[in-house]
Amino acid sequence: MNNRLLNTKFLLSLLTLSLSFALVSLSSCKDNVTSSGESLIGEADQIVVGADTFGTRSFTRDVALSPDSFPIYSTPDSFLLGECDGRFGTIHADILAQFACPIDFRYPEGAEVDSVCFFFYYNSWFGDGYSPMSIDIYPMKTVLQYEEPYSHHLDIRDFVDPAAESVLQRQRIIVAAEPTDSTYDETNRIYRPFVRCRLTDAFAETLFQCRDFSSLEAFCESFPGLYISSNFGGASLLHVTDMNLAVYYHYSYNKGGRDTTVTDVKGFYANSEVRQINRYQYFTDTDTEAEGHDRASMITNTEKNYIVAPANLYTRVSLPIKEMADDILNKLAYVPAGKTDTLYRRPYINKAEIALEVLNYYDGSHELTRDDWAQPAANMLLIKEGSVSRFFTKRELPSDTCAILASVTSTKVEGTDSIRYYYSYDIAALLTEEIRKNEIDSLQIPDSLHLVLMPVSVGKTTDSYYGTTISSVKQEQIVSATEILSASNSQQPLSLEVVYSGF
User: Fold this and answer.
1) Any alpha helices (H) in 250-331, and if so which ranges?
2) Helix, strand, coil percent content, the chain, rounded in steps of 5
3) How crowded is the C-beta side of 374, counted as CA atoms within 13 Å?
4) Which of 168, 174, 214, 339 ranks highest by number of CB atoms within 10 Å?
5) How far apart are CA 202 and CA 207, in angstroms?
6) What is the pTM of this model?
7) By C-alpha distance, which of 503, 499, 502 is closest to 24?
8) At 9, is the pLDDT very low, low, confident or very high (cuts 50, 70, 90)?
9) Which tens digits make up the pLDDT trace of 25-36?
10) 153 confidence band (pLDDT: 50, 70, 90)
11) What single string gives the DSSP state of each residue in 27-96?
C-alpha cells in the first residue's frame, strides 16, 4: 500500500474522530464553535462544529376561511356522512359516488326490473349515536373524473341539479346506535350495521336501462352516480365503509314446456375502480359562552394550537430560516491564506429535532365527554406549506427534506406517574437543504420557513424482502382533534437546538 493512501486513510480517521469528539462536547454547550484538527491541516480543510438555539413560532389557521390554501384532495377509503357539532364547529359531510358495473354483463332476455335499493355500511360514528338523522339521495348530473384532484369544498351545484328530486321511495330516518339491519363480519368477528334505502320505481327503470357494460367509463357516462346527504340531524356523523346498489329483477323462460319465472339481483359497487368524493362544510356557530368553545379564541390562543380534521383547523410552525442560515454560514466562513474573498465550508445540520406535546390524548381514565370524542390524530405530517398541493396531488411519500411523518409517542415523566404524549420530528436534513439554498443565493431564502401540521392516514405494505413499508399517505378524512402546546407557550416555549458542522 503506497504512502499517499496511508496518509489519506489516517487523515480521514482523524477527522472522523475529531468530529465525533466535538459533537459529544457540544451536547452540553450552546452558541459555541470548534475547529478540529487545526494543527494538522490547513484552514480550508478544517472541520468546524457548532451549536445554536433558535426560537420558533406556531399559529392556528382556520381552514374554513381559506379552503384553497389547505384543500383536502378527496381520495377516501371510507367516508363521513351526516352532521355533528362540537367545540371546533359544526361539520356537515356528504358523499358523491360512482358505481362500478360488471364488465360485459348482460341481463337475460326479457328481464324486467322489480326494484333498486341502495345499501351503505358503517362501523362507527362520531357524536351522539342516539340522535336521529335523515338520509337523502339524489342523482348526479356530472361524471366524476377518476384522476381529478377534487377538493373537499367543491360546489355541489356543479355535480347535482339543484332542482333534482330525491330518488328515495320514502323518507329514511336512522339512529346510528340502534341499527335495524346488520351483517356478520367473519374476519373481524363483529356485526356491521347497514342501512337499506329503497329507491323510486322511476329511478329503478332508468338505471335498468343503463346497459353499456363494455367499460367502466361507458357505464359512468350513462349513469354518473349518486349524491348522498342528510337533511336533518345535527348530532352524529357516520363512518361509512362500503356502498352498493342492488338491482332486483326477474325474467321468464321455457323449461320442459312450462314458463318458469326466475328472480335475481345484480350488485353495482362504489369501489376503488371508480371515483367517490367526501365533501365537507363547516359552520362556526358553536357555543361561545365558554372560552373553551369559542373558535375565535382558539385561533388567537398563544398557549395552545389546534389541528382538527378533516379540513378544519391546522397549525403552522415557522422557523427563522434566514437567521439560522446567516448565523451558521457566518461561523463556517473563512478566508484562505493569501486571499481576500470569503469562502464557506459546506454546511451540514447534524441534529435538529422538534417535539410537539399533545395535550388532549384520551388515556381511558374517565368517561368520554363532548370534548373528548374527537381524539388526536394517530399520524401527523409536518410538511412545507408550499408543497402541500404537489405532495398530495402527485401522491408522494414522506421524505426528510419535505414532508416528515410522526406518530403519537409516549414517555413517562421522570419522577411522576404522568405520561407525556408528543409528536417528534427530525428536521436535520430539511434544514440542511434550506440552508444550502442560502449558500448558493442569499436572496433565495425567505425570513421564515413555514411548515404545516396535517393529520394523515397511512397505507402500508409488507413483503419478505423489504418488510413493512409505507405505500401511501393521504389527508385524514376521519374526524380527529389534536391540541398541542404552542411554540410561544409561557410555561414551555419551544426552542430548536441545532448542532451543525462544516468542512
Assistant:
1) 295-300, 321-331
2) 20, 45, 40
3) 29
4) 174
5) 9
6) 0.81
7) 499
8) very low
9) 444 444 555 554
10) confident
11) TT--SEEEEESTTTS-GGG-EEEEEEEEE-EEEEEEGGG-TTTS--B---SSEEEEEEEETTEEEEEEEE
